[in-house]
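Weekly structure sync, notes
Attendees: PL (lead), two postdocs, one rotation student
Agenda item 3: pending single-chain targets
PL asked that the sequence for the first pending target be pasted directly into the notes so everyone works from the same version. It is reproduced below exactly as submitted, 181 residues in total.
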Amino acid sequence: MGQSDDLELQEFGSLQQPAIYGRFIRLVLGGICLFGLTEVISLSTQIVTYPFSMLPNLSLLVVAPILILNYVVNIGFGVNWHRLPIIVSLTTLSVLFLASWMMTNSFDHEIVGFVLLLWLIYFYAHLGISFVLAGLIATPGCEMRAIPHLFGKMTGRGSSEHHCPVPLITRIDEWESSLHE
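Predicted structure, written out during the meeting:
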């Protein structure tokens, strides 16, 4: 599944819930994302003050949202915006960096840093919470459906499901399912 692929929500109950290993890997990945969030927050003053100068230090933390932001938004919110989330994000940041350069002869401007900081906080908070929640409540398929899954459980209604686009997680779930057959 590529980032521009159509959203393919499945009917409630059509995907099997993850078992112990699938849930564990989701908890571990959630912990990694939440650690990334704490790193972003701990660097928030430097990110806001020197966003461009901080990019080399933030390279690993910036690469992940560039690669999978579309999944986080599209699957998480159940929308089919294709590549629009990353296009809007990168265009906004690029325009702000350019405006900063034109106004101050520097890419390091507080407005750019603030937007970059909010973008990183949103990404790592949404993904991290979703992974942890998916591990705790055994969300079937993609962890990005964990928040809707929780609301479905709380209201007694089902929520749509989505296959996990990460092959490793899908393979773990399939392997674990084959053990119980």
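Discussion points:
- The chain has one domain: 11-179.
- Residues 130 and 147 are 6 Å apart (CA to CA).
Action: rotation student to compare against the earlier draft before next sync.
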